[in-house]
Carrier domain-containing protein
Amino acid sequence: MNQTEIATIAANILYLDDVSEIEFNRSLFGDYSMSSLDYVDFAFELKGESGKEFDPDELWPINTMMDNPDFYENGQWTDAGREALKKVFNGFTDLSEENPSPESLYNLFSVDFIQHRIGTL
């Protein structure tokens, strides 16, 4: 899928009048206020349009990872969690921060990231 196709789905889910309102590198969660319900709809639409089989938790596995004490415990990423994060963001961005905050990760959830992630699923 290309960026415009992904942005169009996001714009429809977020009830934006014009797809050009979405900048490909801006966070859909932070900058466009995508809610968790919007996200589920978005993931479902992406799945249908992309022809790829994935669960919403595979597209954005951060929340599931944070619920797993093997990956995230007491507000800190474990060694296994940091390795898992590197795999999720491999080829998209270098996570040089030792303990990236949830907010900094949510800021990466952009059209650009989604295009990258769909390509790896």
Q: What stands out?
A: The two ends are 12 Å apart (CA to CA). Residues 76 and 99 are 6 Å apart (CA to CA).
